[in-house]
Structures are given as structure tokens and as C-alpha cells.
## 1
Amino acid sequence: MQIKSEKQLKELKNYQPKSCLVSSLYLNTDGSKFSKKEVEVIFKDLVKEKKLEATDDVLQDIKKMELYITQNLDIVKTKGIAIFSCSKENFWQVYELNVSPPNLFVIDKNPYVRPLFVIFSKLYKICTVIFDHRKAKIFEIFGNEIVLKEEIYGETPKKIKIAGYRGYDESRVAEHQINKIMEHYKKIADKLLELYQAENFDVLFIGAKPQDINLFVERLHPYLKKTYGGSFNLPIDAKESDILRKSLELQMKLEIEKEKEIIEQLETHANSETSRMAVVGIKDTIRALNEANVNKLVFNLDFTYAGKYCPSCSYLALKEDKCPKCGTNLIRESNIIFKLIDVAVEKGAEIYPIFYSNTLNQGIGAMLRHKGIMKTTI
Ligand SMILES: [Zn+2]
């Protein structure tokens, strides 16, 4: 299944079986990086430790997941999967992902949904309008789905029909033609505004002849001008699959630019002796989180690092055994990154995952609330 709405994720998050635990699995299944066999081995390694102390129900979940991976997983189609299972209650949900999550296996009272929420935070509702001088089609795109929302037929007459008609001269015909086109554009722009107010899409793309685009964009309401993200050249009768592909390509291009900008900002502030308003790398990011000094947590979605956390006060560490704040024994996790994200969210920080541009070399970093951090032992 696909991620469709926040409501769907909240329902999943709130699922709580009465007498057993839920197994949650996230797996990077990017076929351009791994073979099917390798993915199977990664899964086996991931659950190995947990198997030792697992209940029969959880062992059943693991068996079912293993079977799904060998029999149903398509590593060409999906970059990642998330599976939630509680065999005892016949609960089973598989999400196919367009991005690669870190490998995680979590056993808990509820499904572990933080990674799905992180992925959802970067799923945009796209509106794409395709038009020519006579027609227009408005589509809505979410994830991999494209839906035709509106079709508009203008009254713009064909030039051939009207030329020479009842003594119209060429210039009047041309003027009449342009007025009709502008009326048609106005109609499209009004429809788009109506749709924007109802559906609140995040970005607007335009598919049309390059020479027609500026004139059309000028007629958009200021709200829509703000959401306008770019254009491509596609005919009015283009296939929906092509409109979807072009829109997603453009969205990814915009996203990569945004990611690069954020990474550059982070690195500039981290490397500047005078600013010190950012940190990069796992150690300083953990220190900043322990000091509640993170404004925005930036991380590569697939970055993993082993570390420890305090189950009673959420203190984060790498080497320490006991929590210096409350004395509790720290718990070791083979991947601590999503604990960092949980702590950041709890402390009200903004989360910014990097999906597409592999330029955050240290994997994780943070913009700070206050200047600098203390170099404590962690
Ligand atoms: Zn503690």
C-alpha cells in the first residue's frame, strides 16, 4: 500500500493489540545498490539479535516478513519497504516506498511509525495544469498517483475559420483571437484558484508551449504565483504517465536544490568560528540534543550509527554505560538515529531529512538555538 494521508498514519500509530506486541520493519531495498539476495541477508542480520529474546508471536512475524521478502518483494519497483505485523491478531500492513529508509526492526506495543512520518513530511501534493489555446486539463498528483480533476474547453476559434469572415481583417481577427485566448487563460486560472482553496496543494506545475507560459503565469492569483514551481513542454493530449513522470522529475529537482541549500547553510555555520550556530557529525549533534539546543535536525534518511539512550530521561550517548543525569543503565541500539529524531521532535525541533542529494558527508547535523555547544564526554 501507499502512504496517503496523515490520518492513515495516525491510525496505524494508534493500533495497539490487546495481548501481544507489534513488529515493525523498515528495509532499504534499492535494487540499484543491492541484489535480492543481499536484501535477504541484511534482513536476517537485522533480526538475528532480536530473535534470541523474541516471543512466539514475534517469531511468527519475522517468519512472515522473511517469506514476503523472498516471494513478493520487487527491488526494481520499490526503494524501500515498511512492514507492520502482529500475527496473533492477523494484523499485516506493507508499505512500498519511493525512498530508501534506514534498516530498522522494532518490537513495541504499537507500530513504530516515526520513519513513515518523516517520509510523509516530504510527500507533496502537486497540481499540474496542461493547456493550449483551446483546452486545459488539471491534474492532482500525490505519491505515484495522478488524478484528472478538471477539463476546460475554451471558445477560442480556430484562425482559419474566422479569417475573411464578414469582412474581418487580419489584425481584427488576430485581436479577437488573443482576447479569446486571454479569456481562456482567465478561466483556467480561476479554476486553479478554486482548486487551491479546496485542496490546498503544495506546488503548481505547468505543461505548455514555452512561449505561452509567461503570459499565463501573469494571470495567476498571487497565492498561486507563490506555489508555482516550474514548467515543462507537453502537449494537451500527453499521456497521464508522461505528465506524472515529468511532474515528479521537476519536484525532485526542486527538492534537490532545497536540500543543497540547507546543507550549505548548515556547513557554513558549523565551520564558521564567529557563527557557531550549527554542528555537523554524530557526536556534536548528540551533545546539542542533550543540551536541548537543536533548532533544526538535518540528516540523510539512510544514515545509521550505533549508540545508546537513557530509557527514563532520553539522554543520548555513544560510549557511556550509565546516564550521567539520572543514573539509569543506558540501552544500546544498533541504529540510534531515529532515537535522535524522537528526542528532537519531543524537544520541539524541526526535522529536515535529506532524501536525494548525497552531499551531507557526515550524515547528520543540526542548526542550533544558541551559539555553540559544550564538548562533554558522551
Ligand atoms: Zn537518564
## 2
Amino acid sequence: MILIRDRLRAIRWHLTGRCVARGCGRLMVLHTRRQRERCYDTPLDVALTARGWLLAHGLDAEVVDAWCQANGVDPDAIVEPVVPVSMHAHSA
Ligand SMILES: [Zn+2]
């Protein structure tokens, strides 16, 4: 059932989600195949916050805010820009 739910979420994202490539922001469904490939090669217009970084490193969502408060870290502080996966492949 989890697989079906994730599939539906992916379809919904494809139909209603907006592109996060820098300077784009169009609906994903409005992209041609070539445009989508170009956007995949564009740096994302997003960055990782301290909260997101901690979540990505396996901390539970409930403890992230408490951890940040205890360590004097602003959970919304940007810690690193997010680079698309395809950028890593090209630089290799
Ligand atoms: Zn785009």
C-alpha cells in the first residue's frame, strides 16, 4: 500500500509540482522533454537548512528542533546549497 501511495504522490507532483531549477518555476507538466533535461542540469533554486541537513543525516523530526535549541543553531539557517545529481555526474 505504501508503494501505491508513493506512486500517487509522484504522479501528483508531476502534474501539479513546480520546477525548482533556478530561473524556471514552471509547472513540471508544462516542460518538454528537452526543457526538463535542461532544468535537471540547472542548479536548484533551493538550499539545505540546518533542519533539513539534520533530517537528511537521520535525526528524528521530533528531536531536530530540540537539538537546534540546545546547540544554539537556527533550524532555518541555510547550511549548503543543493546541487542537482546530474551536476555531480558531469564533474566526475
Ligand atoms: Zn524547469
